[in-house]
Amino acid sequence: MLSAIEIEQITHELQQVPVKKAACIEALKIVQQQRRWISDESVADIAAMLDMSTAEVDSVATFYNLIFRQPVGRHVILLCDSISCYVMGYTKIKQALVELLHIGYGQTTPDDRFTLLPNACLGTCDHAPALMIGNDLYRDIAIADLPQILDQYL
Amino acid sequence: MERPLTQHIPPSGAALHLKEYEAVGGYSALRKVLQELTPKEVTEKVKDANLKGRGGAGFSTGMKWSFVPMNVTGPKYLIANADEMEPGTFKDRWLLQGNPHQLLEGMIIAAYAIQATQAFVFMRWAYKEAAQIMTRAIADAYAAGYLGKNILGKDFQLDMQLHTGVGRYMCGEETALLNSLEGKRATPRAKPPFPQVSGLFGKPTIVNNVETLSYIPHIMNNGGDWFKSLSYTADGGTKIYGVSGKVNKPGAWELPMGVTMRELLEEHAGGMKAGLRFRGVLPGGASTDFLTDAHLDVKMDFAGVAAAGSRLGTGTMVVLDDKTCPVGFVHNLEHFFAQESCGFCTPCREGLPWTEKILLALEQGNGTYADLEQLEIHTQLLGPGNTFCALAPGAMEPLQSALKYFREDFEQHIKDKKCPYAHH
Questions:
Q1: Is the CB of residue A113 less than 8 Å away from at least one CB of chain B?
Q2: Measured between alpha carbons, how far is B17 from A39 in angstroms, rounded to an integer?
Q3: Sorting pLDDT into bands at 50, 70 and 90, what band is B424?
Q4: Main-chain dihedrals φ then ψ at residue B164, nearest 5 degrees
Q5: Which residue spans adopt a coiled-coil conformation according to this UniProt entry (chain A) (predicted)?
């Protein structure tokens, strides 16, 4: 069931659009903001609210890279794996993250703290390699910086 | 040397807020336009300047606007494409974070030209800081009477919304962007009808790149002749160029359109890092053909780069050095394109993962000469005219040129049954 705050925010979005289904992506963002990810139940709840079929909402939810259809940890690490970061050695950063966190891409630490994901170009190529955690962008990262970066996220 | 787009952005890149923007002449172009020009005259002025779209395609902006029907009732839309996601591209971020009102002023003038009443900034999710800055800028512009009803006391109204995406390269393609803004999967639409006639929610819509729209206030203030005089070549204006990769000073610079690749790489980017040699470059982002040291004197404008066999694209270059494996480099690119294909049309959905797999096999020493032929065939089958949008043809550009310029590297992987480069 959607929470009162989710319903209130989705209702607000519905007032901005000419047809209900145009609020689909915003609705997914709102629910994910509250729950970190989009469960089957959330897909059905959003579909009901937007007069869409669950399949239709799911087709949108699964299309976009940053809508998570599986549970993720409290902090999602998005490591840029595109070309400038490749040239500047992101693969070594990835290896270091795997060793520090003992998880691979798509996995979450047992304490639910971090999920590690690859991500397409973060648009900061003159400062590669780069990664994002939540709203925070880290640039020109070296392996030695990683423990200090991760320590900020509990 | 004039740098109209970036001259007021401090070296720190910190945002110019409303008062600061007004203090350097901000919104004077809008004032002038609303007082002196008809919508048609605005479009004519942009057409005269021959401003070409900075998002990659290089189509005439004034021409694009002139296709919008003016005698229809009902809403029209103006959209800034701030979904910068071409790998190797980081130019619009500079403008979005540094001078948000310059973009908004350009958008308001563009909206006036096509008589749109609703505008959107479609921004990629990753630009969190830019989104915050833009949110404040939009609120400030409303409060100052540059947005909303009766703008500057005239009979013109415009509402502005920031839409932040949820990640997908396809959203940068203008018709896919429209689908995404309608809450759908970002798959491209058939053209015609073009968005200028039937775009967002089936209404006339213009989608322009951030850098393109940011130029509009300057063209209104200074005119087409001034715009043309900024450039070294027939394509007018300045351009934001960028360089990334193993150069001494990676970065972005606003320079006259048509600077040479050599000047960019050697003077602005400071040349290659010690001990490395230049081998090639993607001149305008991931979906452009490689150029090599034979092309260093190519002028970086639309015609110049095209004559050399590539595209100006976004004008942000990615450098390949002699210690980085060209096969691994191209595998990285095709991995990106295969992942970001929307899956809507078959050649792209099936072909891109195939090229990615072949390139991985080659990179890991499991490739054959037949694989090279297979890659060549793919560059044809996924080329222009065979797919629904430009994603797959764009993906084939670096591949086909790598097969041409770095053939010996591909063959050495096959002969040695391993990657000869040490960086893995």
A1: no
A2: 40
A3: low
A4: -100, 135
A5: none
Q: Are A125 and B87 within 8 A, CB to CB?
A: yes
Hey, are the CB atoms on A65 and B321 less than 8 Å from each other? no
Contacts for A140 with CB less than 8 Å, ≥ 6 apart: A127, A128, A129, A130
CB contact under 8 A, B161 and A16: yes
- Tokens 């505008």 appear where? B119
**For chain B, what's the residue count?**
424
**Spatial contact of B330 and B279, defined as CB atoms under 8 Å apart:** no
Least CB-CB distance to A66: which of B90, B167, B333? B167
**Cβ neighbours of A121 in B, within 8 Å:** 85-89, 286, 336
User: B92: which chain A residues are within 8 Å (Cβ-Cβ)?
Assistant: 123
**Identity of the residue in A64, A83, A132 whose CB atom sits nearest the CB atom of B87:** A83
Q: B-chain residues within 8 Å CB-CB of A67?
A: 166
Q: At what angle do helices A54-61 and A24-35 cross, to 10 degrees?
A: 70
Give the residue among A104, A31, A108 at the shortest CA–CA distance from A73.
Answer: A108
CATH 3.40.30.10 intervals, chain A: 75-152
**Domains recognised in chain B with CATH numbers:** 18-230 (3.40.50.11540), 238-321 (3.10.20.600), 326-416 (1.20.1440.230)
Which pLDDT does position B57 carry in this prediction? Answer: 84
Under CATH, domain A75-152 is a member of which superfamily? Glutaredoxin (3.40.30.10)
ipTM of the complex: 0.96
Q: Is A117 on the interface with B (CB under 8 A)?
A: no
pLDDT of residue A153 exceeding 70:
yes
Element spanning B376, H or E: helix B369-381
Q: A89: nearest CA in chain B?
A: B423
| pTM, full prediction | 0.96
Q: Largest Cα–Cα distance in chain B?
A: 74
Beta-carbon contacts below 8 Å between A and B? 133
C-beta of residue B65 within 8 angstroms of C-beta of residue B204: no
A80 labeled part of a ligand binding site? yes
Computed over every residue of chain A, the mean pLDDT equals 97
CATH of A4-63, one of 1.10.10, 1.10.1760, 3.10.450, 3.40.630: 1.10.10
Residue B69 neighbours by CB under 8 Å, 6+ apart? B197, B204
Residue % of chain A over a pLDDT of 70? 100
Residue in A17, A65, A83 closest to B88 by CB:
A83
**pLDDT score recorded for residue A22:** 96
B43-90 pLDDT tens trace? 999 999 999 999 888 899 999 999 999 989 899 999 999 999 999 999
Partner-chain contact A83 B333, CB within 8 Å:
yes
Beta partners for A77?
A: A116, A133
Instruction: Using the predicted structure, report yes or no on whether residue B423 has a pLDDT greater than 70.
Output: no
The pLDDT mean for chain B works out to 96
Q: Where in chain A is CATH 1.10.10?
A: 4-63
pLDDT in tens, B338-359: 999 999 999 999 999 999 999 9
Q: Which of B332, B342, B399 to mutate to test the interface with A (most CBs of A within 10 A)?
A: B332
**Distance between CA atoms of residues B185 and A131, nearest Å:** 26
